[in-house]
Design a protein that fits this description.
alpha+beta, 2 domains, 6 helices, 16 strands, globular, zinc
């Protein structure tokens, strides 16, 4: 939820005491410290695919760009509770650096989308936002990719119409789910707060493991089009990670412990993921086609399984090759030493090997 706020984030707690609370957001998700929870089931979305006849309001509120969502959009999670969507908004950086709010193992991504919902047991978001179980936000990390994301283009193509603070325009309905990752089953979950004043600590956060790719031009358009307070370019509208104060982060999947596993390419279009899966490696981020879809029959499990089988065979072959090479090298060294002893003389100068400098190597 984005409200009007003072520009100095350090002063937030003076007018909004919750901003200095112990359950603040965003956070840095340390993957090896997360706890796997089998109770966390895939997120279920309903009513997200809107017809073009549905007109949505897009507004520049001076701090971000907000897309109002109709009440027909709902989500349900593992607790069986239903949540109604209210709006979505974005956080970004600038050409000088990335601007996601959540970070993963210290890494900040180019941008972040938040889809805000409230618990339907309450009459409105204004009533729900002060209740401990009142809000639920779906968050996805955005990063630059090689192709334009058509789902995001539904929003980005209208940014120039809302370039000034207070401007609004209408956007034809589209599939809002296309703004989120294709894989809604792998995510992190923790209890936190709104990331802007009043910073109410009433948010159940879902941060998806799979990222969403936008083209570099789309990222730059987000960073360079909108203006906020005092006609200043609206950039770096993210809050820094907050202290955990003993909170734990749950994961809906088993996180690999140990060295980082590289992403598995999927038709050359692998979406990088913040975290590798304990069973599926970094392939949790499936290759993204147009709109964030994954090509049929090219899932990460298939790629990773074949990679492991081929890897076992290659490991044996390289081991044998290494042993043969090492033996040949030892024989060669023995012959060279014998030859040197025969040719060496007392007045022959000894040459000490000196490594080449960086400049020499660069030539």
């Amino acid at each position: 939820m984005v409200l009007l706020l003072p520009t100095d984030k350090l002063s937030w707690s003076q007018g909004f005491p919750d901003c200095s609370g112990q359950k603040q957001s965003p956070i840095n998700i340390i993957t090896e410290a997360t706890l796997f929870s089998p109770q966390l089931q895939p997120i279920h979305l309903s009513g997200y695919n809107l017809p073009p006849s549905e007109q949505l309001t897009l507004k520049n509120n001076g701090h971000t760009v907000v897309l109002r969502l109709p009440a027909t959009l709902t989500m349900s999670g593992s607790n069986g509770q239903q949540y109604q969507a209210v709006q979505l908004h974005l956080h970004w950086g600038s050409p000088a650096g990335p601007g996601s709010e959540h970070t993963v193992d210290g890494q900040r991504y180019q941008a972040e989308i938040h889809v805000v919902h409230y618990n339907t047991r309450y009459d409105s978001i204004f009533q729900a936002m002060t209740q401990p179980d009142g809000l639920a936000v779906l968050a996805a990390l955005l990063q630059a990719g090689p192709e334009k994301n058509p789902s995001y283009e539904h929003v980005l193509e209208h940014l120039e119409e809302v370039s000034e603070e207070g401007d609004d325009t209408l956007v034809a309905g589209f599939n809002i789910a296309g703004l989120l990752p294709a894989d809604l089953s792998r995510y992190f979950r923790y209890n936190g707060s709104l990331t802007t004043p009043p910073c109410y600590q009433t948010v159940m956060w879902t941060v998806f493991n799979q990222t969403v790719r936008l083209s570099l031009d789309q990222i730059l358009k987000l960073e360079e089009t909108l203006y906020g307070d005092h006609d200043k370019l609206l950039e770096n509208n993210f809050r820094l990670p907050q202290a955990m104060h003993g909170r734990r982060v749950l994961a809906s999947f088993s996180v690999a412990r140990g060295p980082e596993v590289p992403s598995v390419p999927d038709d050359g279009e692998a979406a990088m993921t913040p975290v590798p899966d304990g069973h599926a490696g970094a392939a949790a981020g499936r290759g993204l086609g147009p709109g964030g879809s994954s090509p049929e029959g090219t899932g990460p499990e298939t790629h990773l399984g074949s990679s492991f089988q081929a890897g076992d065979v290659l490991a044996v072959l390289f081991g044998v090759l290494f042993a043969v090479t090492a033996l040949a090298f030892l024989v060669y060294v023995h012959k060279q030493r014998s030859h040197s002893r025969r040719l060496d003389s007392p007045d022959k100068p000894k040459v000490i090997y000196t490594a080449a400098t960086t400049e020499e190597n660069a030539v």
